Amino acid sequence: MNPVVGLDVSKGESQVQAFLDKGQPYGKSFSISHTREGLDTFLHFLKNVESITSKQPPVVLESTGHYQTPITQFLEEQNYLYIVINPLISYQAKKSSLRKVKTDAIDAYHLCELYYKEELQPHKKRGLQLLNLRNLTRQHESLTDLCTQAKLQFHAILDQVFPEFRSVFGDLFSKVSLHILLEFPTSEEVLKARESELTERIAAICISRSNAWAKEKAKKIMDAASRNPFQKVVYESHLISLEMYIRIILQYQEHLSNLEHRIDALASEIEEYKIIQSIPGIGEKIAATIISEIGEIERFNHPKKLVAFAGIDPSVHSSGKFTATINRITKRGSSRLRHALYMAVLCGIRSSRNKKLKEFYDRKRDEGKPFKVTVVACANKLIHWIFTLLKRKETFLDLA
């Protein structure tokens, strides 16, 4: 006998269906909750199937992000083999049926049938260190997006309160700039204060700068306040919003700085981190993202599989005498890895930091290839280099 258990995972619960062998469903499907009691019930069911077939059944489930975590962690603790499949694969398998039925019980049933039709590979457990790094880099990316949104809202409010303040500091979102704006949010409050008071506050916040620099900035703030078109703020709600966004941005900056320190500390313990950083154009942040998204290089036995995992492999469309000439990339892999590779290519070809990559880029452009097509080709080349370096555990030599 060749038993299998199909699991349709959803938020907080899963639907279970077992097969003793191909075409032999075992009992009716049932639901389990993702609690200790529910997991113990599931374990008892697995033991029951094992006692009937004299073989430990593998568990097949779709990838559902974090919803599957309670199940997979429990199966690992109980030493049960499980297979996590791409939802696209199961979706295509379901389309082979003419009947239009969609329930959790049917989905669990189809997962069992798929196990006998396809050669599914068991899930390869990833290292805890790389998973922690992946979680931190993804959290950093999410927090950066939120911070960017807050900055856009801040710009909109500043345009209606103190637009001339932008010309004072080189970096509008520096610590000293935001704190001074928090204390003096309007031109009216700036003009009420003395220039010496502004100088003292700037010097106290930015102690690394000279007093002359602080005095210069204080004068610029006074000039900006006198030029400001809004000498009096009509809407108090704008001031409330401005203060709120300043405090939000400062909090985001603090959290991002903390995350960056933790990412650097964790990544520095990983050998592959230094190997990838040896490629010109790849800095600390991009290197951490790449190694955390790729994981263990042993999961890939060919560079083309890594290319497909990044989603930069070309799609193919051919039917009869027709063969498509415009083939876009599939984008079916890790979007974060794909974005990191894109940024690495841009950094590498800028100012010819990566001589080999710049030479390849120039050659493709001379052939008449569009910019984006050339960048994707460079990303493909780069991922092949990364695969080779990680496999051989060697650093990059830019000898072009």
From TrEMBL:
Residues 5-163 form the Transposase IS110-like N-terminal domain. Residues 274-361 form the Transposase IS116/IS110/IS902 C-terminal domain. InterPro entries: Transp_IS110-like_N (IPR002525), Transpos_IS110 (IPR047650), Transposase_20 (IPR003346). Residues 249-276 form a coiled coil. It holds the Pfam family Transposase_20. It comes from the Bacteria. Keywords: Coiled coil. NCBIfam families: transpos_IS110 (NF033542). This is Transposase. The lineage of its organism: Bacteria, Bacillati, Bacillota, Bacilli, Bacillales.
